[in-house]
Each structure stands twice: as structure tokens, then as C-alpha cells.
Design a protein that fits this description.
3 helices, seven-stranded antiparallel sheet, mainly beta, about 40% strand, single chain
């Protein structure tokens, strides 16, 4: 299109060059060029006129009749100062754009569909995020960013197909045509081609320096979405390397802590609909799971940061399972990462072990991030820190025969479980350990039993049992309580628990 020079400078609608000019040899910059008069009027009289999509430093107009006393950031005052020796061309606010390219890759978080602009005025690359329509610059100021500031003049820019590298070419001479002819600056590398490669984010205070304005990947409902493949090598093994979706939104970050992982593939599953519930244990877990597979598993601990959206966290926080029980997630501090060997899928298929988190909290305005240290990669889920998904207790039952209480329980997909401690009580409140049964661990169902012959010496008409399920990291949870009647007593009414919080169980034993 026609952008109006020299009768329109920048935007036609701001009128900041009205009654000035594009030149620089007279009081108001007109020189041999025609006076501008009204930019808007001039634009209206031009065929095929277009306003630019962006204007650097659109200064105020100022007062043509009192240019010397106009505000210092106005066009009229800048012209006055320039023509009266108060400032040189180097002080004029501008960027002197040269080469331009568009970044359409998605490897660098938040960069997809950004204009990358080479600058002649103090060599740098300016990134300008486009709107979704692609015909305007996004309004967020943090999306217009300067990189690689130096004394060099970048004449042109090119992008590598891998999405991680940028090439700039530098003027061989400081006196080439352009705004610095009268203000030469010696290039630090005249005539060079420079390559800049994105490695990741520098660690700081044990965590990542990724900008919190990056959008968290929302995923595609009810499918496993393949993320961008990253490569962790000797160059970036101590950076936080981001994993992004095809829109350059963040899914996860890995700090390999010096481990060489090679190519790393990632799949993201997001559930749409009713909040997910684990079979048997009825534990609720987040509508997101992430499967990360490195070419080479690490030889020592690596750090990960996993991201989730506000909507997913809110759904879990407000969720209720099929037993009308809440998730127990009141804030991000109640959330933990659980890990198992599942392939990417729609539900938690096997047992998952809890991972101790090292850092978790809000990430910008769009969601949350949970950080942990791990020794290997597989699939990751999110649930209440006390959900303890490593073992699924399918059933816990008992009966009395010949003065012996036989307790039986069945588990499924044990992982990270150490032992089952059988506990007994005569009042349903005060329990004491009876026996410790080691867990066998592994996939599939496991059956256990324990005969308690000690009840023959007890005079109580009812005996209560429960299991204390302990994990290898010494976390534990309790099973439901089993009530067994010994027949020693004429009649009994049992009410528990005591004190009562919401539900009470009344048991009648009539002999």
C-alpha cells in the first residue's frame, strides 16, 4: 500500500506532524519537501493509502507557533532543538528498521506469529507479537521486546527452520547510508553474520526465569496431543528447557542438571467433562496428565516444572466423587504430582507414586506451576497430596469362625507400598497394631489375609479392625473400619465414629 511519505509520517490519525515536514533543514523540518499541513487530509487524498500496523514513538504534535517552548517529546520541539543545535540525529527517538521476518514456529514460548525486526540504530532485534488476525500488533506492552542490544547495525535478519536460531548480518562500514552516517558508530563485528540460539531460561533461586505472561497450553479435549520435540544436549543441559505445544504455549520445563537426555517427546491429555475419579480408591485427580519420554533416561536427579490451567485446578477444587466426597484440594499447596509408567491415555490406568514437590504456586493470571525433582520420566498426574494413589484397596473384609477373626483384603496395582499394618480396637476409636504384613507390589490384583486368634481372649462383643497402608516414603492412609461380632454378650448397640462430624453409623447386635 501507499504509506504516505512525505505527506504522512507514521499514523495519519494522530496529526502529530501537522504543519511540519519530513525534511530537516528548516525550522519545521520541511526543507525541499512539501509542508505536510494535515496528515489526515493528505491520507484521504491518496490512492491506496494504508496506515502502518505500528508506529514507533508517535510523539505529540506540539505548538507550531511556539515550537521552542513546546513539550520536549513533541514533534515541533524536536525539530526546533535539532535545527538549533540542541540535539543531533542520534538523539532523535527512532529505531531505523531494516530487515523484517515473521516467526511462525512454536519452539520459543509465546513467540509464534511475531514480527522480528532488525534495527540499524544500536543493533538489536525487536520482537512484536501480532494479534490473532495477523494485521496488527498485540496491545500488551510486554509483547514488544528488544533483544541483543549492541553497537552493531543489523542490516537484515533470517530465521532457522528449527525455530531456535536467529541470524543477523552486520554492516561492514559505520558510514553506510542511513541515520548514523553523520554519527558513525564502529561495529563490534563489521561484516559479520551472527547466530543467536535459544537454549532455554536461566535458573534463578532454584527455579526458572520464564516470563509469567506466557500462556499455558490448554490441550485438545479428550485426545493425546503431541507437543514439540526438544533436544537436551551439553549446550542446554543446565537451563530450564521449555516444552511447548504447536501454538508456542507452555506445557512443561526440564532442567536436566547436566544430564544429556537427547530428543525428548511429550504428549498432553486434557479431560473434558466430569472430573476424573480413580476406581476403587475414589480419589479425584486433575483433568490433565503429561507423558514425557526422553531418548536417554537421566543418570541423576533432574528437575521438572509442570503447568496446569485455572479451569483445571478449579474443577478439581470444586469436584465431588461418586461417594459425595470432596477432592480435598483447597489451594495449590494441597496439590501434588503423581508418577507412573502409563502411556498417554484418558485415565490413570495403574498405580501412581507421589512425588515430593519443591515449588508450586500461581503462574501469571492463567494458571499454576508445580515443580519437583525426579530420577526418571514417564507419565505425570495431579491430585490431593494425601490421595496416595500408589495402592488401590479393592476390598477389606472379615469374619469370625471358631474364635478366630480372619481378615482379608485385596489390592490392585501396588507401587511404592511398603506394608499393611492391621490395627484393632474395642471401641472404634482407640486402635493398636496387631500385625504388619509386607506388601508384594506389582501390577494386577494381590490378595492378603491374617488370622487374629487373640479375640478368643477378649470379652468385647464387637471388635473393630482397620488397615494402615504405608508407603516406602513413610506416608500412610487408613482403610475403612470392619466390625466383627464375637458373640460374647447378650446385645449391643454400637454408634461410631465419636465424635460425629457429618455421618453416623449405628450397629445393632441382638443375641
Amino acid at each position: 500500500g501507499n504509506y504516505g511519505h512525505p505527506l504522512v509520517i507514521g499514523l495519519s490519525t494522530d496529526g502529530n506532524y501537522d504543519q511540519a515536514g519530513a525534511g530537516s533543514t528548516t525550522t519545521f523540518g520541511q526543507g525541499s519537501l512539501p509542508p505536510i499541513g494535515s496528515e489526515l487530509t493528505n491520507a484521504g487524498g491518496m490512492a491506496n493509502y494504508n496506515d502502518p500496523i505500528y508506529c514507533f514513538y508517535a510523539a505529540a504534535k506540539g505548538n507550531p507557533a511556539a515550537a521552542s517552548t513546546s513539550p520536549t517529546n513533541s514533534v515541533q520541539r524536536m525539530y526546533w532543538d535539532f535545527n538549533h543545535g540542541s540535539q543531533g540525529n542520534g538523539a532523535w527517538p527512532s529505531e531505523a528498521p531494516s530487515g523484517l521476518d515473521i516467526y511462525t514456529n512454536s519452539m520459543i514460548p509465546g513467540w509464534k506469529n511475531s514480527l522480528l525486526l532488525a534495527s540499524l540504530k544500536g543493533g538489536k532485534v525487536i520482537r512484536m507479537k501480532l494479534t490473532s488476525s495477523g494485521d496488527a500488533i498485540a496491545p500488551n506492552p510486554e509483547d514488544t521486546t528488544n533483544y541483543f542490544r549492541s553497537t552493531n547495525r543489523f542490516r537484515d535478519i533470517a530465521l532457522s527452520p528449527d525455530g531456535n536460531s536467529i541470524f543477523t548480518i552486520i554492516d561492514k562500514s559505520s558510514t553506510t547510508s542511513g541515520p548514523t552516517t553523520g554519527n558513525p558508530i564502529i561495529s563490534a563485528c563489521g561484516g559479520c553474520v551472527q547466530k543467536y540460539t535459544f537454549l532455554g531460561y536461566a535458573p534463578s533461586g532454584g527455579t526458572s526465569t520464564i516470563p509469567t505472561t506466557i500462556t499455558i497450553a490448554s490441550g485438545k479435549p479428550n485426545i493425546c496431543e503431541n507437543a514439540n520435540t526438544i533436544n537436551i544436549n551439553s549446550a542446554n543441559a543446565n537451563y530450564w528447557v521449555p516444552i511447548t505445544d504447536t501454538s508456542s504455549n507452555i506445557i512443561a520445563e526440564i532442567n536436566a542438571n547436566g544430564n544429556i537426555l537427547g530428543n525428548v517427546t511429550t504428549s498432553l491429555y486434557t479431560n473434558s467433562g466430569t472430573i476424573r475419579e480413580k476406581q476403587y480408591s475414589h480419589a479425584l485427580y486433575l483433568d490433565r496428565n503429561i507423558t514425557i519420554t526422553p531418548q536417554t533416561q537421566p543418570g541423576s536427579a533432574v528437575s521438572i516444572r509442570l503447568y496446569l490451567t485455572n479451569a483445571e485446578f478449579t474443577a478439581l477444587k470444586n469436584g465431588v466423587n461418586s461417594l459425595s466426597q470432596a477432592s480435598g484440594v483447597g489451594s495449590i499447596t494441597n496439590l501434588s504430582i503423581f508418577k507412573n509408567s502409563d502411556p498417554c491415555g484418558s485415565k490413570l490406568a495403574s498405580a501412581a507414586a507421589a512425588i515430593t514437590t519443591t515449588n508450586k504456586g500461581a503462574f501469571g493470571a492463567g494458571g499454576y506451576v508445580v515443580q519437583a525433582s525426579i530420577s526418571s520420566f514417564s507419565s505425570f498426574y495431579f491430585a490431593n497430596v494425601s490421595a496416595l494413589l500408589p495402592v488401590n484397596l479393592v476390598s477389606f473384609k472379615g469374619n469370625v469362625s471358631n474364635d478366630i477373626a480372619l481378615l482379608k483384603w485385596v489390592t490392585e496395582d501396588e507401587q511404592g507400598t511398603k506394608a499393611f499394618i492391621l490395627e484393632r480396637s474395642l471401641n472404634s476409636r482407640d486402635f493398636e497394631p496387631v500385625a504388619s504384613v509386607p506388601a508384594t507390589s506389582g501390577a494386577g490384583q494381590k490378595q492378603y489375609s491374617y488370622p487374629d486368634s487373640a479375640i478368643s481372649k477378649l470379652s468385647s462383643p464387637v471388635v473393630y479392625y482397620r488397615l494402615k497402608i504405608t508407603d516406602t516414603d513413610d506416608k500412610y492412609r487408613y482403610s475403612s473400619v470392619v466390625s466383627l461380632y464375637t458373640g460374647k454378650g447378650k446385645g449391643m448397640i454400637s454408634v461410631h465414629p465419636n465424635p460425629v462430624i457429618s455421618n453416623v453409623t449405628v450397629e445393632l447386635n441382638a443375641v
